[in-house]
């Protein structure tokens, strides 16, 4: 009997295991078990200064001295600490260790080694000395795969980690990214600050995948800005069916003109001519390989953000209706093929595919792999009743994802696309040629057309007609090709070229670069999207300018790293190779960034976009009262910019006075330097420093008092609608009560006001200012005209009882409150018509939100 502690990567995975094995605790084939789970990585590497000997702490904590870089990787002990927000997970695992003989690492089987690293670092941190089993389950981690993996675990001790290739690969990648990312981020931050750019006080973030993407977007947009259209003119033939015949242009050919008139003169040398067909051949094309998350990003880039696609797919995976998201595979194993094949017709019925198209039941070689990784993204045996059910649970994004993933899978069961390729030339001018592909049998393209994955600048295969008998010459105008817009498809295609990251990793990195998603709420965006086109932000402009021509801005370094990591996986004794590559990368990139740094002040784009990221202007001097050097901001927080004479006054310990416009009137302020203590918002620690202190004139426009419902002191304006609150009214307001009085509007008309004190929010540029003030009660909803509902988000809304002349029934109102769409019949001038009506609490009219409906006609 062996007592097992099964360690899953996340809660949803643990719940699946519990479902397969019969509970979170139980007995598996005579062996007692308990299931615990992490939440992704629970640990992170310590700061460099916490991983070195005491005599090296100062060096590794120093950001400013560039001579410190690159670090010596052998100085670091690579120790880790628990991520603050995940302490409860590690505590729970520790509490369950006692009484077990084996920890079973049952994290995801990532080809990068990430799952192994995630599990083993927990084992090490908890100082576990007994046996460790690693189980690897493939595909959709279904019950059969999980139970099968428990029958053949990889058994090891904590002392045998360095012999496990996949684990060493994961550790090596983590070390490379830590060294290059952290060191180059510090180098870039120091150089930017030397040039006067503080990036809002935060470090610039440099990284292998993200810096490549940021520099790619920047380079492409610069090429677009510098593009100069150069038209050219040449003779081409065209037949009555729109087929074009042209010559193969080589530099120096004299038949291409920059002057249209010259091309017109050349046209006189040609006349209508006969088309000669050279060859006719039947061609076949197999269905494309299965889509991954990045492919879904390309398909839906105009409808959904990268975060929406990845998050929605993850939720669907957690509910077992699609396969593992973070896969590198675009094919599946024979077992997976055979397992899903009996469900193909049912899947086809859900997504509206004619099952008669699924006649290719034998797998093509391109779709089958022998490895036991997760396999390509695909639907699972847990098939929804309908796409409507999918949309109700996961939204329209979920519906679209399932439909495309399912159709991508079903296409592999359809016959090849068949077309006729015809090649022809012009009889008297055989140098004019044309090749057309005439569709013959659409087959798989009726299910899934891979043209959706093409770059927008490429053209999909159109429906073409055969050649006519004759063709006529004409003057054709073309131009040099403009650089492609950096859309999501463009970025993902370039990442594919270098084989950079899994589909999920690409999408998550692009979300991070935009600062979207809960985990990226504190990230300063490097990219933004304007009408589907990616652009750099001010931070992105700084990074792109500094990192230009560095190794990390090129896909080549990731390709080189991947080769080394695969070599390390095959022979773990070579793991120190990653240190050499990291050191050479940092040495090269440091020299390049030092060379690029002076251009930050010269680059027009950096000046334009990163202007608000400049360092705070400060002055320096000895503060006489304390006899120590200080460097306060030149501009005081109330907006007054000090002069040199004022600076000398305050350094001597004297106050200064000045006039400043505030709240629409001029005030006299007094300011001076003083030693003050603040609480750091990030660390919670108290910080003491010499900084500005301002004395404001007495505020006669506001009232201060204790707001009794919250037992806190507040301040509010003592006037509303030209009415000054009386002492009694102030007492009532501070008690949280409503008051009524006669006010005067801007036109001088009197009206009755009823309201109370409310905490409110005012937007001032990017800032949100919270304040207390009197607010008039909203007008009551006329329930004779409007229906009042509590919507599914818990908020109260109202809408008219009639819509397009139709009075809502009680049953229809229930569906509206639930947020469900429904088909409603309306009476029009020409009879009854039907529409699909979907509630939308965020409809807008003239910039104002209201509860309305999205609608579309149905048959």
TrEMBL record:
Q: Where is the signal peptide?
A: none
Mention one GO molecular function: DNA binding
Question: Per UniProt, which keywords does this protein have?
Answer: DNA-binding, Isomerase, Topoisomerase
Classification via SUPFAM superfamilies:
Prokaryotic type I DNA topoisomerase
Residue span, Topo IA-type catalytic domain: 163-593
Query: What is this protein's name?
Result: DNA topoisomerase
